[in-house]
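Predict structure. Chain length: 409.
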Amino acid sequence: MLYKIIHTADWHLGQTFKQKSRIEEHLLFIDWLLKTIENEHIQAVIIAGDIFDVANPSIEAMDLYHYFLVNAYRLNVTVIVIGGNHDSAARLNTTGSLLKLLNVHVVGGDINALGQIVPLKNKEGQIEATVIAVPYLRDGDLRKIAEAESIKDAKLEFTQSVKHHYDSLLNEALTLYKNVPIIGTAHLYISGSSVSDSSKENMHAIGTLGQIPSYHFANGYNYLAMGHIHKPQVIKHPENVILKYAGSPISLSFSERNDEKEITILTIENGQLAYESLPIPTQRNLKRFKGNADELLAEIGNYKTFSNLTTWAELIITERVNFIEFNKKIDELAAQNNIEILEKILDAPKTENSSVRQNFNAGTHNNPLDDIAQIFTIKCEKAGLNEENINELMPLFEETLSIVQNKQN
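Prediction complete.
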């Protein structure tokens, strides 16, 4: 009899994109996932980190999380959730004991809980596989950092600590549960990973001192359920251990607009593990239009979509135009074709008198204050704060910003 597991990751529940909520898209994905669990006779689900977009998620995001877990329990499914760099380990772990009643294993990640071995049993009570659930790892969680340590030494020590951590858990699992496939989880950046926007590859190194080589995961692992990179992909391993990023279930930025979103279904039969990808239906298209005024008007006028939700678009305008006239035409065409333009960017040669402020007043979104959250993040990083600190501060910053903006209005 087949034992089937779904590997997914990077849900980022509660994300807002250009001040737009993603709750509707996430609900449609979760409903599709629950239907897939039922139709495919899935017995377990692994969520490999970043279940939430921020450390202090909204009530709506928490409700979606609980909605999935309760309905998965009704389908008699075991769920394993690990913390990612966007998640608060403390918040996830707070409800961990309670969620065990729903057959949910939560490994949020803190210095005393950096890994858990979970046996997966079939309906007859026989162990089909072992999951080594490891959350997002920070350097300070794994070792004592030496004073005046160079960046080169810190990177080497950190990557060796990661290897030792996974090796120790693997040896323990092999001792406890013999002759069954071993599935590890990881939320980090593996050398050779491809991101949706190559200019952002360095972003994934923040907080983990760079990339972890694939060969640091020993041959005893059959499959590594990866999270952190939003583009689905399999990473090469010298001993053919399967390292796979599930990717995010929805496109979280315009740079991901061309990614094929999917979940991974693992199948275990007679102790042998296989996997296949299942495409996730696209509920909303993110689209980037680029060209001069006539080209943009033609493209948007001819645009067709078969998705359920309104297309969100980014316009890159390559010439200077009369924005009063252009905006009227383009907005009318967009509305007729179920498009909402979230951003207009002027990418034309600058004149002597042009400035970001003039471009903004003309009707584009080249105002640097539109990226104030990004500026705040950069300032925090320069002040020495790590990602978890920044994620914890961001809701307070956004609340303060909202108060200031409301007073100005």
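Summary: The mean pLDDT is 86.
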